[in-house]
Batch of 2 targets.
Target 1
Amino acid sequence: MCLNHNDTSPNPSHFEDSEEVNTTPAHRDIEWKDYKDLIKGMRFFDPHIHMVSRTTDDYQAMHQAGIVALIEPAFWVGQPRTGLSSFKDYYSSLVGWERFRSAQFGIKHYCTMGLNSREANNEPLAEQVMEILPLYVYKEGVVGVGEIGFDDQTPAEEKYYRLQLELAKDAKLPVQIHTPHRDKKKGTERSMAIALEHGIDPSWVIVDHNNEETVKSVLDQGFWAAFTIYPFTKMGNERMVKVVEQYGPERIMVNSAADWGISDPLAIPKTAALMKMRGISDETIRLVTYQNAIDAFGKSGQIDVSDFESGFSIDQTEKFQGNSILRGGQQPAPTKDSLVIQ
Amino acid sequence: MSDILKQKLWGIITRNSSGTEAEWLLQKSTSSPLELMTAFVAAPRFLAKKIIHTSEEERFGLSSEIAGFSVEGWSLVRLGRVWLLTQLDSSDRNEYVKNIETLFDTAEMNELVALYSALPVLSYPDQWLFKATDAVRSNMGFVFDAIALHNPYPEQYFSELAWNQLVLKTIFNDKPIHFIEGLDNRSNEKLAVTLSDFAHERWAAGRTVPAQVWRLVGKFMNNALLADMQHLFQSANENDRKAAALACKEANLASANYLLAKYTDLEKSVRSGEITWASLEP
């Protein structure tokens, strides 16, 4: 996708076509030096981020900012896949290479598995994907079926959404729902109604990409409400602070959904800093940026907090059964200010 | 594979698992191939996070069936998975191969580790050669380790070219080569010569080579390698000097003996067995 850097219109992403109009400043960026002291000692869990699209610099910055674990939902990759093998390789990378890469930077990597709504519209391919999905959802570290739900809200999307809700029930896994960008309110209501119709306990469902318009109904019906801090097109962090002030921390969680658009893998630590500045309590911050995500996705039985709560292999050269996990020649966390490359 | 080995693995499982865990495995082992494969995937949901420690008797029992095969330090999940694979119906070769390949193609990291650990006990061992060399190409440390270290499969089935890649990559990745099964049996001249080139590149970059890697050159000592030994004898690192002494002792080259004789104390220590390659293992 071509990005014109002189163009300040909303960035293209999987959150394109937002109908929201920004009247008051909804978001502000904060520099590391200005907020690092505010979040000192805090740990964060990002329950929605697409690391396959991110660089090693991001991993290092995330680790430095206190992100100890994350969930990478299966999504579409910006263009339609043309065959089953592409899906297979993508799913395998979420539980294979990306998981390993993340571990090298001291961040525990989980994922959710699913057929995204856009590609559910390619029915012949969707049919084949559904056949191999069960092989992936039972895997270690798969904490849910996701991100699934509606995009254009077509009959095909509904069909595969329903099939995957059944799969989640069979596998005893939480569901991570992607809510549509266009006609969001109706799409969100419809997603929840269908989940309830399938007899799924709302406390097992995380409804993602909420805004001020959807949150009340989501919480009232007993679902988890996730908010994506995605500059320009989704929630801004200033708005997020207001939501938390209004609704409190119960069943609310924040994520970055950082991907291949102009997004921010540090959205959670920055939002936490902003909440701190606005006088929100440390306990509330902990719940919405760490604990609630663990409680919701932990229902999968796949999250063992002892794997990351006291820091997860911070030392990259840590030996595993006497063997370094580093590739030969790779430097542990090279210093960015150093001119000399060894 | 032999039924005795299956029984021995099962014995280790029962001594390291709860009744419920063993029962789950038993039940899955007699189910349809698809259900057994799903159990292979879902094993961490039913088996505890636990490391297996084997007795001397158990270790001997396994290695007397397949030389070099060991499950020491495995997780219960890894052992359970490998045992499940031994229970997969192999009577129809095409069907069996298709099933195992499906598991490979869809595997996550720990499943890959179990699959590569299982290579020595799978049916139709020559069928898995390409997969095995693929693991040597892996950048995932755990996957590489599963084929390269404590695994008797490469020693038995790898070509010389593939074997040398495995050893070189182990050295390149700064992993301990003495964990490679069959290291002495499969030593060869090409590997010894390539090792010299590799060491020169490292030295040029101001980096070092672990002293124990020189155990691969003794039998193939030539003038070029002897120059490397001279370099090592001059090293500030004591282990380098010991390695040079050991390699020269093993050489069938008169000039290597003369060189060693210049370092009286070292010569005495290697000839008396006071210094061995084991003393250089990290």
Target 2
Amino acid sequence: MSRETALVTTDWVSENLNNPKVVFVEVDEDTTLYEQGHIEGAITFHWRDDLQDGLVRDLISKEKFEALLSKNGISNETTVVLYGGNNNWFATYAYWYFKIYGHQDVRLIDGGRKLWELKALPLVKEVPSRAATRYVAKERDNSIRAFRDEVIAAIGTRNIVDVRSPAEFSGELAAPAHLPQEGGQIKGHIPTAKNIPWSKAANEDGTFRSEAELKALYEGAGVDLANDTIAYCRIGERSAFSWFVMHELLGVNNVKNYDGSWTEYGSLVGVPVAVGA
Amino acid sequence: MKTCGATPGGPSLDGVDLTKQSVIQGVILKDGQSDGVPNGAPVASAHVRLLDSQGEFTAEVPTNTDGQFRFFAAPGTWTLVVLAPGVRKELSVDAATGVPAEVVIQI
């Protein structure tokens, strides 16, 4: 993967608003902003309501994913272009999700909704309707998804990258500072994890930094990208952002996103925990 | 006191346990005032970034339709960076547990 295949610019979006092969999908933790205005032709997926199983803490099943895409008019041949607020956190989570279910052509708008708004580009309220399809997903590709036992085994042996803010890493905060302070049962981080906040991979306008800057970011923090890497955060969406950076922009294949993240690890009984910078 | 329909400062604190939270919140308004009171229109969909005392990014929120935003921070000095089309504004703010830090920012 590379920037050319994984990202599109806002200019590309403007030129492809009426491209029938493209479906734009706004993904976020709530869909209020979508209702207030969205990119013309875009549909929306709600991070929790559409993409979480709801009963079991897990992704939705292959059958439910197929039904979700089919009813929204996304076919296996569609170019799915994702974007969202929150610096594309939930859009990159959805990107990772589409890859897990084997979608061929999925891309992300560089800068997401924020850059679109900062450029004062048009937003519309009309909700499009698209003819239903019969989407067929692949079996889950867990080569990009880490589970808790693998994370515990990785302590001291593989790269573990904690992409939360320094205050969450040290144990001062339990959640990002714009959210109520709730999360795992305890605060801190996974021992031997390097704290490389997701935000260091992004420019202020939400676009990604250059490949040279990104490579220097991880290597400068002592991450040997030749070794296996697991990224985590609190609920797995910010780490999907950093997974996207390493796996898709830098083309490093052996990177997994631990979507259980601190809300799971910080509630496990008896596992090792570290605090402090 | 109302400012163009928006409550000066941040959103309602109903339901927020201030004994446990160090809240930084406020409202982004366009320039304009009457008798020294800011009365510019609220700026929706501005982006407010919270940086820690080392200048490190900590969080970011868009303003709501009333131009308001809120952070749950920790006690200490923080920097707010406001981004809107053609605008970038920075200011320092102190947070403390119990008393929300309320700011009105005009751009």
